[in-house]
Prior knowledge:
Blueprint: H1 8-18, H2 48-63, E1 67-69, H3 82-87, H4 90-93, H5 105-122, E2 126-127, H6 134-149, E3 153-157, H7 162-172, E4 179-183, E5 202-208, H8 219-228, E6 232-237, E7 256-260, E8 276-280, E9 291-297, E10 303-310, H9 330-368, E11 372-373, E12 382-386, H10 391-399, E13 403-405, E14 407-408, E15 420-423, H11 429-440
Parallel strand pairs: 1-13, 3-4, 3-5, 5-6, 6-7
Antiparallel strand pairs: 2-8, 7-8, 9-10, 11-12, 12-15, 14-15
Helix pairs in contact: 5-9, 6-7, 9-11
Amino acid sequence: MRYLPHTPDDIADMLRAIGVQSVDDLFRSVPESCRFADDPDLPPPLDEWSLLDRLSGLAAAAGGDWRVFLGAGSQAHRIPAVVPALANRSEFLTAYTPYQPEVSQGTLQAIFEYQTLMSRLTGLGVTNASMYDGATAMAEAVLMALRITGRRTVLVSRLVHPHWREVLSTYLAPMPDVNLIPVPSAPDGTTYLGTVPETREPAVLVMASPNFIGVIEDLSAAADAIHRAGGLLASGFSEPLALGVMKVPGREGADIVFGEGQSLGLPQSFGGPGLGILSADRKFMRQIPGRLVGETVDAAGRRGFVLTLSTREQHIRRGRAVSNICSNAGHAALTAAVYMATLGGSGFRSLAGINRDLAEYFKAGLRKRGFKPLSAADTFNEFAIIPPDRFPERRQALLQKRILCGMPLDRYYPEYRNAWLFGVTEVAGKDGIDQVLEELS
């Protein structure tokens, strides 16, 4: 879209319509000390191509060509060119909520395909048309469990993402009868399940695998423990690619699966938008928030798609709605579906294997340089590790070379005060890892 400046007459007409004398009057509420006294000293005008080159240069100087070895809920992955080429077609970008199936078949089928692919990934019977992000998906999973069981005690592993736990606390704050109990961690970096049998009438056990420090949890053992207590298991993830090499959570006993789908073809974009994933056992279909799209045939016997279940207050009486969450993040879900279809099953597993192998290669290289893994348990593409004493100084030196390595865990976990969280994806590659290892030598 080209830049079309307003003429003086256009500006005068608009000012007259809103009842002010000048453009400066629009900024009277801004303190004078915060305003320019004179026109800013800007360079002369540039043509479009020169301007784009100039902005690209500024972007590169500000933050281009960084080597980033972080995770903690947001991952940098390569996005095949076909994904934005298809997902950003105008008919997808302009599509709206599919209330009328006769004019919304494209949007409905896109949601249906997303639900199908995601249910295969999580191993559960139904997936809704997406939530805002992983944190809200987790909160909605807990609200589901409270409705299903009728109980009021929620067990949440301390190794679930700290930000997600804060969102859950916010959701539950207006519900004083709900008891939110943290489940401690074991020395090996997994969730300690010994407290589950001691809890009276738990509604749900909330876990993440891989958890926040990268460890893959034993979901089967967790499911056995909470099911014996009469509750449900809600299992989550912030890196969906991990499901390419892990056991599928739905087949490990999880009743509800939630997660963040940003890795599935969505750029990090400074933190958003994300893609909330929520799947559940088919018997809980009427308790899942959002929308479900189903396949049917029309009067002529042709294949078609319709909204088969919408438990939102926009569709049914507010008192019967299971959630007031009102966005299906449709375009993010469509992008994820295009990404998964592009990779296919074998490509998804292959990419997951590459991520895991790179992380193990990085971990082995760090160990040779005096780093000690916090846990011997299995990890995927993130891991917690204890560095040599002078690592913080070396990390600062690496920043000068545009290498960002590790996040201190003591910010969220005082008991891990000497440990750092590292993450690696296919974006860094073996060459990037070797560069970091050489610098740390």
